Amino acid sequence: MNRICQNLRHPRYRILATTAPESLARFLAADAATGAAVDKATMDKLVRTNKVVVFMKGNPQAPRCGFSNAVVQIMRMHGVQYDAHDVLQNESLRQGVKDYTDWPTIPQVFIDGEFVGGCDILLQMHQSGDLIEELKKVGIVSELLKAEEAKQQDDKAK
Amino acid sequence: MLNFTLRRLTGVSIRNLNQLTPTISSLGQILPRATMSQEAGQYPPIESAMRKALNTELKPVYLEVINESPQHNVPKRSESHFRVFVVSEKFNDLTLIKRHRLVNDTVKNALKAAGFEFMHALSIEAKTPKQWEPEQEPEKSPPCLGGHGK
Question: Where is this region: Disordered (chain B) (predicted)?
């Protein structure tokens, strides 16, 4: 845990700007750690750094996997601010998150510190409207919801 | 079906059964799927282990197991990326994540018993019979973005 905190303060630890509308994700490039998988306590902290946390392959600007990319695109559509971790940069994180959730694949999405699912589940939640509900529960208003409401306002005004 | 009766009668494990399948495939007329096999007269090992496990555990109304490895940056004839489309009564009271965990665990246990590592990627579509229309095709997986080349 201390190591992660030290890494956070190290200049090597990059956080991409969140000002541009395209890059709503904070990309946290941790050191490529060696040794055993990241332990549970560290994982507990990592999944709570933001309301929405995603473990993926690659980063939101350049995903290295089609399924990770699907998650990134869905998040972009909803205008969600989230933290992204690239497991390809860190083998112990990659194994650590799999052990933490007892889920064998990446990407993995956490909302409010709770594991929600991977690409398939997120896609189905997006299609069924459940994702908008889940985001609302943690206080994130989805862009799609805003667009929907704006449209309804327009229709009423006419 | 014949596999299961054989297995019960002889009490063989899944691993031994994989070795037995060449003899079963010689009964090509009785088991149609044996005639669709590729090399060495049997389904690819991981895929067949998955099908067996999913059929036993979930007793699905409909099951599709698709090897999507050719769509990805992996060697030929890999069995690394799969898509599973299952329709089963067992999903009736389960949330999405519980259904997916059930499928994941079934596949994981089957592969462990057969001595394989879990695959690199598994896409799951788990529907209840009520949610399922027979004409429905499984979703298409997004295109591969290269992975890490390993």
Answer: 127-150
Reported as a single tens digit per residue, the pLDDT across A81-122 is 999 999 999 999 999 999 999 999 999 999 999 999 999 999
ipTM above 0.95, yes or no: no
The whole-number pLDDT of residue B86 equals: 94
Q: Which residues of A touch B147 (CB under 8 A)?
A: 57, 64-65
- Chain pair A-B, CB pairs under 8 angstroms: 54
Q: How far apart are CA B140 and CA B66, in angstroms?
A: 11
**What is the predicted pLDDT for the residue at B148?**
72
CATH number among 1.10.12.10, 3.10.20.30, 3.40.30.10, 3.20.20.150, domain A40-157: 3.40.30.10
Cβ-nearest to B145 among A63, A118, A121: A63
- H/E segment holding residue A38: none
Which chain B residues are closer than 8 Å to A89 by Cβ? none
Closest CA to A55 of A91, A107, A114: A107
- A19 versus B57: the higher-pLDDT residue is B57
DSSP B39: G
**Domains of chain B with CATH codes:** 45-127 (3.30.300.90)
Q: Do B104 and A104 touch (CB under 8 A)?
A: yes
- Judged by a CB distance cut-off of 8 A, whether residue B148 touches chain A is yes
Chain A partners of B145 at a C-beta cutoff of 8 Å?
A: 58, 63-66, 68-69
Contact B114, B49 (CB under 8 A): yes
**Residue with token string 């750690």:** A33
User: A117: nearest CA in chain B?
Assistant: B97
User: For the residues B47-53, what does the mean pLDDT come to?
Assistant: 91
Give me the helix-helix angle, B14-25 and B96-114, nearest 10°.
Answer: 80
| Residue B63, strand partner residues | B86
Mutation site, A57, A64, A99, interface B, largest B CB count within 10 A: A64
CA-nearest residue to A66 within chain B is B144
